[in-house]
Amino acid sequence: MGLIGAGATVGGAGTRALFSDAEGTLTTVSAGELDLGLDWRAVHNGTQVASMSRTGTDGGVAAAFEDVKPGDSGCFSLSIHNDTNPAWVWLAISLVDEVEGQPDPLEGAACTMVGKIEDYDGDAFDTVEGGNRVAPGVYEFDVDDETVTIEVSITNEKGESAEDDEAVGFTAEVIQGSYGLCAVTVKSSTTTDTTTFDDCTFSTPEIRTPATNPQGVEQGISFVGFSVCETEQSPGSDHAELADELLVDVFWDDDEDCELDTGEASLSADETLRDLVSRTDMEAGGLLLDGFRTGTRSLSVSWRLPTEVGNEIQGDELELSFDVYAEQRRHNDEPVNPWT
């Protein structure tokens, strides 16, 4: 388990980092005068691992976590300083980027062909060899008494210059099982091509037909064959995303101890990070921080990854941004949300 912290004062966009991660950009609007500042600290498993002293207008800060394990917990505490006029203050917590991790293959795991799909019907491949179609685009294969479920999404069909309802591009994702894809074989016309992956992967990039006709038009895919290898993933488990498994609490942390104490106001409790972001990012309009006038207030986002999550999120990475916007409160009784 590793954790990295970094901080910098920059102009404009700020620095980038992973989460479990924070990036902040401070914007102020001066009508009269506002002097707003930010500082922060990051705690992982009870130990402060990174911090940044106060930075002023257009300051960017970042703190990065790597390889968060089930059972881990932590806190990101953001202090907002307003030394001048009473202000309206909004906070937006946004999910900037997600990287889906891939589990390691078991040592010596073989790459084994398990089946193929064919006969594209304009919606999905309809015929399955070595398995079953359980829904449009979703196929089950039996591998050593375990069911491996693969979802295939069509990304492209033939264009206007050729016949419709022939798939020429797709992605594949293992959505259940402890096996990953190590190779995908595609046949179109008389051409067969195999794409291999160095490690077992749960999701592939777009794979396209290997054949074109003399006019350069891509030929429809005849069949797709899947080869899999066993990974460290728990047998039969679903492949979870970290943002859906991290549980967070958001609260005014007056004593800056990263704990919700009696008398401190809770803004969110036992919410997944995905749900928190969906209602507090810029697109949703962020949060108007009630009770903010002058002085310093500290807001903490505590997080925990339940032990029962297991290794379904192995290698996942997140990038979050924390954005603060403030404008004068005096003579401004009905402020307009800056992000809507």
Q: Which regions have little confidence, pLDDT < 50, spanning 5+ residues? A: 1-31, 57-63
Class from helix and strand fractions: mainly beta
What integer is the average pLDDT? Answer: 80
Number of domains: 2
Overall radius of gyration: 25 Å
Distance N to C terminus: 39 Å
Q: Total number of helical segments?
A: 2
- Helices and strands, in order, run as EEEEEEEEEEEEEEEEEHEEHEEE
The shape is elongated
The largest β sheet comes out as: 6 strands, mixed
What's the oligomerization state? single chain
Strand content: over 45%
Helix content: under 10%
Structure description:
By secondary structure, the protein is mainly beta. It folds into two domains: 2-100 and 241-328, no CATH class; 112-230, no CATH class. Helices cover 4% and strands 51% of the residues. The protein has two helices and 22 strands. The model is unreliable at 1-31 and 57-63 (pLDDT under 50).
